UniProtKB/TrEMBL annotation:
Matching SUPFAM superfamilies: Surface presentation of antigens (SPOA)
Alphabetic keyword roster: Cell membrane, Cell projection, Chemotaxis, Cilium, Flagellar rotation, Flagellum, Membrane
Major site of localization recorded for this protein: membrane
Gene3D superfamilies noted in UniProt: SpoA-like (2.30.330.10)
GO cellular component, one term: bacterial-type flagellum basal body
Protein name: Flagellar motor switch protein FliN
Length: 82
């Protein structure tokens, strides 16, 4: 196995968000549902190691949920702000 194949990357997909008091969060039990501020057709944000890398959309794959990448996000560099 090459060195590249052993590198681990954490991928996160943000579908929506919700603000709530911590006391409400602590009261939630198994099976609780958090109502997000997103709709079915809203874009999702894809992060690799906590850095935004792409935008996409939710796709259904049988009984599983996937993400289709629709746009790569380029990293901002210091030269962009000069």
């Amino acid at each position: 196995m090459s060195v590249i194949e052993r590198i681990k990357v954490e991928i996160s997909v943000v579908i929506g968000s919700k603000q709530m008091p911590i006391r409400q969060l602590l009261k939630m039990g198994r099976g609780a549902v958090i109502d997000l501020d997103a709709r079915r057709d809203d874009p999702v944000w894809i992060y690799a190691n906590d850095e935004l890398i792409a935008r996409g959309e939710i796709v259904l794959l049988g009984d599983r949920i996937g993400v289709s990448i629709s746009e790569r996000v380029r990293r901002a560099t210091l030269t962009n702000f000069a």
